[in-house]
Structure formats: structure tokens, C-alpha cells
TrEMBL record:
Stated family: Belongs to the TonB-dependent receptor family.
Organism (species): Chitinophaga varians
Superkingdom in the source lineage: Bacteria
Protein name (Swiss-Prot/TrEMBL): TonB-dependent receptor
Domain TonB-dependent receptor plug: from-to ranges: 121-223
GO molecular-function term, one example from the UniProt record: carbohydrate binding
UniProtKB keywords: Cell outer membrane, Membrane, Receptor, Signal, TonB box, Transmembrane, Transmembrane beta strand, Transport
Range of residues in the leader sequence: 1-22
Any Gene Ontology biological process: siderophore transmembrane transport
InterPro entries registered for this protein in UniProt: Beta-barrel_TonB (IPR000531), Beta-barrel_TonB_sf (IPR036942), Carb-bd-like_fold (IPR013784), Plug_dom (IPR012910), Plug_dom_sf (IPR037066), TonB-dep_rcpt-like (IPR039426)
Localization in the cell: Cell outer membrane
CDD domains to which the protein is assigned, alphabetical: ligand_gated_channel (cd01347)
Every TonB-dependent receptor-like beta-barrel domain range: 314-741
Length: 776
């Protein structure tokens, strides 16, 4: 009997003990916008109890004894949260709100690591152009090339044309994307990828600088990702109407243009939507002297159309389905033709006339995606599945460069899938983080035909399968380490084709097609020290993989025997670029600054050289290096200023002789200064100064007295832009922007550097843009 009583007593004691030790704290943590915050460290002060918030902001701390505690939540980009907690019940449920810090590193970026993270957790240089900046500066110009170059250190100034030819990021090519959908055509680069969407449907722009392979082929200098607008979650139905007119201030005749943009947005229970449309007709562009600018690849007399829709459905707090579609069209309807001009002496101008051939421009650029997100698909793991499609067609100017003359075009169709997982881990209070892993699948079909049916570059059919993994971990609270790898597995199919005559190239070479395999394992790693906002340094190393402009090589095939050759003989090696970088961010009260020094190397080059009038790729080893500095200060609540300076330089090694890289690759020094002031609560002013320096590294050919392609001497120039807006109410406002306020008479960088008469074109003189906006 005593034995039974003893066993019962033991069982009761064990039960009470289990109940006591089974108590736990659970809950969710969100920011002030009520967005779930993952990767925050939560712990009970004075104990070893700790955890990390999950993808949906949820957290659990098990085996907590009854009593009173201080729960502390910390994370980069957020103020430390301290919450008093008393444990009495078996489960204590909390709903916490954490305040974003104001030290400048809490801004969320999605491109760098393929999932949401703050700037303070990324050991590399990133520039974010906010929606506010885009709204203000698009009142000056809607040319996305110019908007980017005014705001991104390391990016060459805009070309004042419909192309981004010669616009490099840190001296190398970049991968342009819309919501992660690649717009660039690296198999045959047409330099039309920046003008692929209208600024009215861009919410923000994320620029990741330095070589990276995280999104695949073509990001030697970095990535530019246009993030499209989202639905208004606070209203069932809302919208805005923007109407504007623009024109020349030097000579108004025929220069007036018009633009209208309409947007509707809202949320209905679990469903949200945003639809938008934009129509723009530009007038004739004129230089500082009132002369019509040549229509060659010009922004004059362009008709631009953009149609956009994004629909989303939230199954619950953790699962969401979203679809997006964007249509963009820009075509030139010029009543002028190119006339006169001589490089270094006088510019090409426009005179009234009819251009032969087909209209130049982009008849269509279709982009669409279906995106599914699950914040907690299984234990501590989120899932994102993205299926995307792009169909792009652009037509270049009519030219007698071809025999017979004609218009060339680029067609590109891409279909892809990205399956992306993010798994959190928490091994120890001083060792926790996450792993992003998954696989990319891409089919890219790109060709360069002539509009009359001839094939300039045959269709290249690329199939890419690339698994990847990216580790991010926090060591001893203040050290953040990132490391990752990506395995590129590419098969490129090229059919039999015969080259055509163009320039001084005779053509007529039969090329036996075939399959080109590419495999490469590329790496990245970085370290950031996050303890002191006043000095937040980082170092990083990263690689990129690129099939540089393969189409340009294919169209220049040389016969080996009997007027023919094989695809396997042509030089088609891929380029691996290495990027080394050290930098810092600094936030001291109202002052912020950043700086970085970088070195970029590759065994194969991407520059072009002129061979008998034809631009030919030069596959020589290259080294590019430079630095970027930025600073900003908030003088008053209504007065702020910022500045940025970029220096880039580079050389190539041709048979042991090191020579400067051309200015079509290396931007002259660039400085920008922005001042924003609000004299009244409803009145905003902005003045933007841009300085482009000199670059005169080359001498002319001693025999011809002419400069080689890309080696033209570049003089410096300065531009000043003005923005002002007045809000009559929360709904109605009027805006005025002036581009080139001081009417500077100048040649853009590429007009000077390319050493070609057909592109020796002046920049626009002073132009105005007057607009009215009504939101409801």
C-alpha cells in the first residue's frame, strides 16, 4: 500500500513539474506599419532563453519558469524594444510593435539577397531611389536614363537619346530588371533595356553595385531593379490623375508635348489591385541655341504608351498570390531627318524631311509574372515561387551600314521560373541567421534580324539551370557575415546561318551551328560590422558570369576553309568578373555619409575596337577601380542637402601593354549636389546640380589624325535642374520642372567619346515641364 502511495506521489510531483516547465512565451512582432519583422533576436534578460522571429514575425520561447522578466528584441535597422512580461499561465501570448531606427540603415531592400533585408544587413554598396525622389524628379524629365544617372553614383550620365549606349555602372555592363524580370539582352546587347517601362508605375529603384551573379547572366557592373507600384491597402477605391505639358524654353515652335497618367488602386477584403495607364507625346527637342536636335535615336517626337496591372489575393496572413502585367511602347514619329555635322567641328542637326525605312523605337515590351509567397511553408522556412515572361521587340534607325540599306531589330523572348526558399536558424545567442536557397530556370531566345527579313544575327536559344545558396549569419551580435555560391549550367543552341554584308565586312560566310555548353561556379562573401552607427564598415568579394554580346561575335564570323566555319571555332568564351570592395556607412545625428573603394578584374574584356569601320569585341584582360563618396545633412526640418562624387578608371592589357579603357566604358568623374527646401508646408523646392568632368586619355592616330572608337577627348560641363510644387490641398497640386535651367550649351559624354559623326549631337537646352495632379 505504501508503495502505491509513493508511486502516486511521484507521479503527481512529476506532473506538477512538467506543467511548471512547459510554460512558454509566444507571439508576433511587427513594425509601426504593421508589417511582420523576421530575423529579430528576442531574449529574456538575465537568462539563457532566446529565439529569433520567423518569416511571419512569430516567435516562441519555451520552458520559461513563472515570474517577472524583461523581454528584449533587437535587430539591425530597429530600435531595441524592452517589454516587461509576467509569466503565470502555461502560455503567455504577446503582440509586439518595434520601432524602425532613424540611422539610415533600416531601409528595406529586396534585390541584394532575393528576400527582404535592411541596408544594414547587406555588405555591399546599394543605392535606392525612393518613390518621393522619382515623383519629384520626373516633374523635370520622364527620361528614366537621366533620372538614374542623376541619382546613382558610379552610373554614366544619360545619353540624351532613346538608348543607354555607353552608360555603364562602375565601368561595366549592368543587368536591368523589372520586379526581377530581366530586361537586358546580353546575348545581343541593344542598349534599350533602361527604357523598358514608364516611370509612372515605378515605386522605387534598387541599384546593387559591383559584380554579382545572384540573378544570373550579365551583371558585371551590378543590377538595376525597377520595383513596380503596389495597391493602396487603406481604401477600397482610390486613384490619381496626372496631366502635364512640356517644351523648349529656347525656341517653343513645334516643341510642345503632352502627357496624361491615370491610376486606380484599392483593397477589397483579401483582394487588392492597382491598374494604371500612361500616354505621352513629346515635342521636338532643341539645343541651347534653339536648333533642332538630330532625330538619330532621339527623344524628339516620341509616342510613349504604358499599361500596367497588378492583382493580389491574400489567402491568409502567411500566403499570397500576385500577378502583374506591363505593356510598354515607345515609337518615334519624326518629321525631321539628320543633316550636316562633322565630329569635333559641328553637330548633326535636324531638318524637315522624311526618314526612309521603318520607324525606330520599341513597338512592344510585354512583361508578366505570377508570384506565390508563403511566409512559413514549413518549419522556419518561407517560400517564393515566381514564374515570369518577357517579349521584347525594338527597331533601330534606317542605315546604309547594311548592304542593301535597312533597319535592324532585336527580338527577345524570355520565360523563367525562380523557386526561392529562406530558412532561419538559431544555434546560439551569438550564432543565428538564415539561408536563402533555390533554383533558377531560364529560356532566352534572342536574335537580330533586319525588318526586310534578312538575318543579321541568328536566333540564339539559351537554356539556363542554376541552383544557388546564400548564407547570412550574425556572429557575436555585431558582426554580419554573408557568403554564397551559384552554379551556372547553360546550353546555347545556334542554328546554321550565313553572315550578311555590313560596313567593311564582306559577309557571305556559312557558319555551321551547334550547341555551346557553359558551366561555372561563382562565389560571393562579405562582412559588415554593425555596432556603431557612426562608422558601419564592410568588405566584400563577389563574382559575375556573362556571355558578353555573343551576337556581335557571331555576325563577324571569318571563313576558315571554303568560305565557311563552325560555331565551335568562333571565340565565344564567357566572362567571369571579380569585384573587391571596402566601404562604410556613417550616421551621426542629422549627418549621414557613405564611401566605398572597389576593384573589378576580368581575364576577358568587353570593350569594342574599330577594325576597318566595324566595332569588334576586344577580349583583353581588364582592371577597373574607383571610389564613391556621398554625404547628406538635415539643416532644418524643411531644409536638407546631399552630395555625391564618383571616380572610375580602368586599363586593359593587350599583349603585355597596358592602355586606358575607352570612355564608352569609363565615365568621367561625376559630382551631384541636391538641395531640397520647403518655404511653406504646402510648397516644395528642389535644385539639382550635376557636374561631368574631363577625360582626355588618348592621342589621335598619327597618320589619320583621328581618334579611335571610344577614345574621343571629353570636356567637362555642368547642368542645373529645378523642381517646385505647390499643394492646394491633400488632393490637388501643381508642379513645375526645368531641365538645364541655365541653358548650358554642351555635348553629352557619349557624343564626345564615340568619335562618330552620326552621334555627334548636342544635349537639350532649357526645357520646362508643367503638370497638375489630383488624387482621390
Amino acid at each position: 500500500m505504501k508503495m502505491k502511495q509513493y508511486l502516486v506521489l511521484c507521479a503527481l510531483t512529476l506532473l506538477v513539474t512538467l506543467q511548471t516547465t512547459a510554460q512558454k512565451i509566444t507571439g508576433t512582432i511587427r513594425d509601426t506599419a504593421q508589417t511582420a519583422v523576421p530575423m529579430l533576436r528576442l531574449y529574456l534578460a538575465g537568462t539563457q532563453k532566446h529565439t529569433v522571429s520567423g518569416p511571419d514575425g512569430s516567435f516562441t520561447i519555451n520552458n520559461v519558469k513563472p515570474g517577472s522578466y524583461k523581454l528584449i528584441a533587437t535587430g539591425i535597422g530597429y530600435n531595441t524594444l524592452e517589454q516587461a512580461v509576467t509569466i503565470t499561465d502555461s502560455i503567455t501570448t504577446l503582440s509586439l510593435t518595434i520601432q524602425p531606427s532613424d540611422i539610415g540603415l533600416n531601409e528595406v531592400v529586396v534585390t541584394a539577397g532575393r528576400n527582404k533585408e535592411t541596408l544594414g544587413t547587406v555588405p555591399s554598396s546599394i543605392t535606392i531611389i525612393s518613390g518621393k525622389q522619382l515623383r519629384e524628379q520626373s516633374a523635370i524629365t520622364t527620361d528614366i536614363n537621366q533620372l538614374l544617372s542623376m541619382n546613382v553614383p558610379g552610373l554614366t550620365l544619360g545619353t540624351n537619346t532613346s538608348t543607354n549606349k555607353g552608360q555603364t555602372l562602375r565601368g561595366r555592363g549592368m543587368l536591368i530588371m523589372i520586379d526581377g524580370i530581366p530586361q537586358s539582352t546580353p546575348l545581343r546587347n541593344g542598349d534599350k533595356d533602361m527604357r523598358s517601362i514608364d516611370v509612372s508605375v515605378i515605386e522605387r529603384v534598387e541599384v546593387i553595385k559591383g559584380s554579382t551573379a545572384i540573378y544570373g547572366n550579365g551583371a558585371d557592373g551590378g543590377i538595376v531593379n525597377f520595383i513596380t507600384i503596389k495597391a493602396n491597402p487603406n481604401k477600397r477605391f482610390s486613384g490619381s490623375t496626372d496631366i502635364s505639358t512640356s517644351g523648349s524654353l529656347t525656341s517653343a515652335a513645334n516643341s510642345l508635348g503632352a502627357r496624361v497618367a491615370q491610376q486606380f488602386s484599392g483593397r477589397l477584403n483579401k483582394f487588392d489591385y492597382v491598374v494604371a495607364g500612361t500616354y505621352e507625346q513629346t515635342g521636338v527637342n532643341k539645343d541651347a541655341k534653339g536648333q533642332v536636335i538630330a532625330p538619330f535615336q532621339s527623344l524628339s517626337q516620341n509616342e510613349n504608351v504604358n499599361l500596367f496591372a497588378k492583382l493580389g489575393y491574400n489567402f491568409n496572413d502567411n500566403n499570397r498570390l500576385e500577378v502583374m502585367y506591363n505593356y510598354y511602347r515607345t515609337m518615334q514619329n519624326s518629321t525631321y531627318i539628320d543633316s550636316g555635322g562633322k565630329f569635333g567641328q559641328r553637330p548633326i542637326i535636324g531638318i524637315v524631311g522624311t526618314n526612309p525605312g521603318d520607324k525606330q523605337g520599341t513597338p512592344y515590351n510585354h512583361n508578366a509574372y505570377v508570384n506565390f509567397t508563403s511566409k512559413n511553408i514549413f518549419r522556419n522556412t518561407s517560400l517564393n515561387v515566381n514564374l515570369y515572361y518577357q517579349d521584347f521587340y525594338t527597331v533601330f534607325e534606317y542605315s546604309d551600314f547594311y548592304a542593301p540599306p535597312g533597319n535592324s531589330a532585336i527580338t527577345s523572348k524570355k520565360m523563367g521560373a525562380r523557386v526561392n526558399f529562406n530558412t532561419l536558424f538559431n544555434f546560439h545567442p551569438n550564432l543565428h541567421g538564415d539561408v536563402t536557397w533555390g533554383i533558377d530556370v531560364l529560356n532566352d531566345k534572342t536574335a537580330q534580324p533586319l525588318t526586310d527579313g534578312r538575318s543579321f544575327v541568328p536566333e540564339m536559344n539559351m537554356k539556363n539551370l542554376a541552383p544557388y545558396a546564400q548564407l547570412k549569419t550574425y556572429l557575436f551580435k555585431d558582426f554580419l557575415v554573408k557568403a554564397g555560391l551559384r552554379y551556372e549550367n547553360i546550353r546555347l543552341d545556334i542554328p546554321d546561318y550565313t553572315t550578311i554584308k555590313f560596313g567593311n565586312y564582306a559577309g557571305g560566310v556559312f557558319v555551321k551551328g551547334g550547341n555551346l555548353p557553359y558551366e561555372a561556379l561563382v562565389f560571393n562573401t562579405g562582412l559588415r560590422y554593425t555596432r556603431f552607427p557612426a562608422f558601419n564598415p564592410f568588405v566584400s568579394y563577389s563574382q559575375s558570369f556573362s556571355l558578353y554580346d555573343l551576337g556581335r561575335t557571331l555576325r563577324l564570323a571569318k571563313a576558315v576553309s571554303n568560305g565557311s566555319t563552325s560555331i565551335n571555332i568562333i571565340e565565344t568564351k564567357a566572362i567571369i568578373t571579380n569585384n573587391y570592395e571596402a566601404g562604410f556607412n556613417s550616421n551621426i545625428g542629422k549627418f549621414n555619409a557613405s564611401g566605398s573603394y572597389f576593384i573589378s578584374t576580368s581575364d576577358l574584356g568587353t570593350s569594342l575596337k574599330d577594325v576597318n569601320g566595324v566595332a569588334v569585341p576586344e577580349r583583353a584582360p581588364e582592371r577597373v577601380q574607383g571610389f564613391e563618396l556621398t554625404a547628406g545633412y538635415q539643416f532644418l526640418p524643411n531644409l536638407s542637402a546631399s552630395a555625391a562624387y564618383t571616380h572610375v578608371e580602368g586599363k586593359k592589357d593587350v599583349n603585355g601593354v597596358k592602355t586606358w579603357l575607352p570612355t564608352t566604358r569609363i565615365t568621367p568623374d561625376k559630382m551631384t549636389v541636391n538641395v531640397n527646401y520647403s518655404p511653406l508646408k504646402q510648397w516644395d523646392l528642389g535644385v539639382y546640380y550635376i557636374y561631368s568632368g574631363m577625360r582626355k586619355r588618348f592621342d589621335p592616330n598619327p597618320t589619320t589624325k583621328e581618334y579611335d572608337l571610344g577614345n574621343g577627348p571629353v570636356g567637362d560641363f555642368s547642368l542645373v535642374n529645378l523642381y517646385t510644387a505647390y499643394r492646394f490641398s491633400t488632393a490637388a497640386s501643381i508642379r513645375l520642372g526645368v531641365d538645364n535651367l541655365l541653358n548650358a550649351d554642351y555635348y553629352p559624354v557619349m557624343s564626345q567619346a564615340r568619335v562618330r559623326t552620326d552621334s555627334y549631337i548636342k544635349g537639350s537646352g532649357a526645357r520646362f515641364n508643367l503638370g497638375f495632379r489630383y488624387a482621390f
